[in-house]
UniProtKB/TrEMBL annotation:
Pfam families, sorted: ABC_tran (PF00005)
Name of the protein in question: ABC transporter ATP-binding protein
Residue intervals of the ABC transporter domain: 23-265
Organism: Leptolyngbya iicbica LK
Keyword set includes Glycosyltransferase: no
Length: 276
């Protein structure tokens, strides 16, 4: 199953011009008070790429996703999306490609059922019938391995189930507007706190969404070894807001970079020190 997903992903990306930069960060810095979290970062993501951004806690991974998503302004540096410079936040400027973000926190509305949560935007902004939305919601719930829970309330679900429901909400799309689908998806720790089987469901789903839509690219921030290996083609290792290492997924077991070696071994001795 996994091999099939990986093969279909490779086939889909083969049609992409993956020499063409989709997202470029040039000299990006960001501080919170005196805490310099991103430090003159240069980063290029190409069309159709599946990239994992990894590294120790507090090293700026989520901050970079938020900057790319246009939710947080950098202090300095330039951002180019499909060759166009973005000035300001996403609300001030329209990016030439859609960028969607799947957040780490499963923020569901407690007073709404699972169906109302997952179908929220479709109920608000589409002309689809109740029946059509119900069908779409059931479909995505099945995709995340949670069929038949549409009538339940978030309080009746486990933390991992809530997380998968919020993932379902992030991927449900309106068939009336297929062009609404974002060309870039940013996943912030989508499998954190999930059991290994639920993680596999989400990892496979990320691959399927990617391979099913041509040149879609994604960045995934994760600490989970399985998620890194099953979802990424390229890995960027971040340390103190700078790229410490960058290589293909097969190179992570071959490199002698001390940061990468320490990270994957979990050894407390090494160049990475826990942030106090
Ligand atoms: N809005 C904010 N205000 C103040 N400090 C912030 C803010 N957002 C992030 N930080 C700080 O920036 C640093 C990097 O945070 P970030 O969430 O990007 O790290 P991370 O690499 O994603 O960490 P983790 O792996 O633990 O999720 C941390 O020290 C964090 O406390």
């Amino acid at each position: 199953m996994t091999d099939q997903l990986f093969e279909s992903s490779a086939a889909a990306t083969a049609d992409c011009d993956n020499t063409e930069p989709l997202i470029e960060l040039r000299g990006i810095s960001k501080s919170f008070g005196s805490n310099r979290v991103v430090d003159k970062l240069d980063l290029t993501i190409y069309h159709g790429e599946a990239v994992a951004v990894i590294g120790p806690s507090g090293t700026g991974k989520s901050t970079i996703l938020r900057i790319i998503a246009g939710l947080l302004p950098p202090d300095e540096g330039e951002i180019y999306i499909a060759g166009q410079r973005r000035v300001g936040l996403i609300e001030d400027a329209q990016d030439p490609v859609g960028i969607g973000m799947v957040f780490q926190q499963a923020a569901l509305f407690d007073s709404l059922t699972v169906e109302e949560n997952v179908g929220f935007l479709l109920y608000q902004h589409s002309t689809l019938s109740h029946r059509q939305i119900h069908g779409l919601v059931e479909e995505v719930l099945e995709m995340v391995g949670l069929p038949g829970i549409a009538d339940r309330y978030p309080a009746e679900l486990s933390g991992g189930m809530r997380k998968r429901v919020s993932f379902a909400r992030a991927i449900v799309s309106n068939p009336q507007n297929p062009t609404d689908r974002p060309a870039v998806l940013l996943y912030d720790e989508p499998t954190a706190g999930l059991d290994p089987i639920a993680s596999t469901v989400i990892e496979d789903l990320i691959r399927t969404i990617h391979s099913g839509h041509g040149c879609r690219s994604y960045l995934i921030v994760t600490h989970q070894d399985s998620t890194i290996r099953r979802t990424a083609d390229r890995v960027i290792f971040l340390h103190r807001g700078q790229i410490q290492w960058n290589g293909s997924i097969t190179e992570i077991d071959e490199t002698d970079n001390p940061f990468v070696r320490q990270f994957f071994s979990g050894n407390v001795e090494g160049p990475i020190q826990l942030v106090q």
